[in-house]
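Usage

Read records sequentially. Each one opens with the input sequence:
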Amino acid sequence: MQRGPVLALTMCGALVLAAPSCAPAGEGAGPTGALAITVAPLELPGVTDARYTVTVTNAPDGGGEVVWQRASLSADQYGDGAGSLSYVGSCDAATGVNSVRLELDGLYEGAGVLIAESTYLDPTPITLNVACVADTDVAVDFDLTVARAAQQGFFDVAVSFDNIFCSAKLDCVKSGTAEDLQLLHNPATGGRDLTAVLGFACTASITGDSTYLYLDDPVITCDGLAEPVRIDVSGLGNVDLDAPDSVNVDGYLFAAQVSRGTEALSGKLYWNVALGLNHDAATLTQAQACTLTAHATASRTPLTETAYGFTVPTGSAYPVVTWDVQLTDGSGRVCGAHELDAPGSGVATGYAGPGLPSAAPGLFRCGAAPVT
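and closes with the structure output:
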């Protein structure tokens, strides 16, 4: 991997709506419920203030009329000066369901110096619906993260999920060249052949907690194939592409391999998937344009496991790495070296969670044993 920008993502805390003692001036008359808004302190080194806009409307998903809105609510004025916020409002009980929208207006360091927006990834706006009941206290929880530029020096390109530093990439070429990456053995040729490698790795948490990795099965969608190619990443070693949990339509892959474990020297937990791309002319001509998609995340505590997989916390904006990279077209390989969050790379940090206008999926099929 080549040197690139480094991002650090750190948990902000929770926005809780509970019993108030007063309400902002300017709210309409009629039956109301109570909202007390609290944002927990940010865990971002050097950040001395954060400012937010909160908007309450009297219909779901931001619809209807604005019950109240407050802009530039400062943690320095209404909190502890390090990102926490306590503010009281109300909701319109006459319409039943209201919505609460939270926006991050800015982060500050030192004596009120605004941190450039280009140096962090804003997870807001996030909106959640609230059942507003007259003369009743209502609680709604928001969990947010803020991605901020940092120089950690451990990975070439990394993000931090809740104080866990992670790296992600997709490689189809040898490092520093435009030559095909050839790792897996192709049974048809008897030698190593064109390979794409999806890589995801994280350090142990700097707080001393365990580290857990989560990855969904990578899917390759091709214009000319009847259904997507799917790779089961739950096992280790060579993947049986004919097994029910994998799908290898028209032999698009000649092989696949999963490696997962802990590096003894660095305490780094890794999860790599190698894909042998069959560049037989007939296969590529039929498949045409083929794009790989996958997503992964990490946590200090285990994510909740459901019948459908591991899911991010309810009501949260949680960091997720997404791969969305074209591998081949009808004539051959088009993928190259794809670094995390590099412009146009197709490997990017985003957020998963309800109430976001657009977000990566928040469900992961597989989880890895932790680093302890």
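Summary fields computed downstream for this record:
- Helices lie at 75-78, 281-287.
- Residues 1-28, 150-158 have pLDDT under 50 and may be disordered.
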